[in-house]
């Protein structure tokens, strides 16, 4: 007769699913979770459905995130908390401007790409250089750099070489500073990060958050229209409000 505790397997599996979702900064699909936890996919679906019903998880279009009953605390989970509010805004932006949508945040002195919403007709750009190394060459990076206080922007530029990614990339600090000073709340990248790809971004700036939303699309389709700029500003303002609401409810 065993002296060990009596363990309930289904409870263990549910807890392991919660751990796996909480460890990811982006939504996790049922198939990924089943593989990670090591359970059959039908079992994963049953457990996930229950966890969603009870509010421990939330199901988004492309995966699961922690639900309201497990709202994660601490700065290391800030992006996932914000993600549950922002994902519908990114989907709407993708559909309105017909390009993959992105959310980037300025965290601990670095520009971090924290979420992407794409689709079969709106594929993600080839992210061949990390966001933290390409702030000068991306629309979302310019949005963030333009919003930083002068001293913080100078510190960032002193720590990051303006790499020559394409023939269109701005590699001179004075030219970049002039661009940042004249862009307002919307910036674009016309094949500066990747040949054949253009990007439009809007500033997200509110209590406790500095970042940007952006959309990428083939350069041949890009048109810097007022309508597109207004759509980007609307999305950026919605994300700013979502971030403010998240800060209030923590």
UniProtKB/TrEMBL annotation:
Instruction: Spell out the InterPro entries in the cross-references.
Output: GAF-like_dom_sf (IPR029016), HTH_MetabolicPath_Reg (IPR050707), Tscrpt_reg_IclR_C (IPR014757), Tscrpt_reg_IclR_N (IPR005471), WH-like_DNA-bd_sf (IPR036388), WH_DNA-bd_sf (IPR036390)
> Pfam families under this entry?
HTH_IclR, IclR_C
GO biological process per UniProt: glycerol metabolic process; negative regulation of DNA-templated transcription
Q: Which part of the chain is the HTH iclR-type domain?
A: 8-68
Q: SMART domains under this entry?
A: HTH_ICLR
- The transmembrane residues are none
Keywords in alphabetical order, please: DNA-binding, Glycerol metabolism, Transcription, Transcription regulation
GO molecular function per UniProt: DNA binding; DNA-binding transcription factor activity
Q: Which domain of life is it from?
A: Bacteria
Task: Tell me where in this chain the IclR-ED domain is found.
Answer: 69-250
Query: What's its job?
Result: May be an activator protein for the gylABX operon.
Q: Please give the name of this protein.
A: Glycerol operon regulatory protein
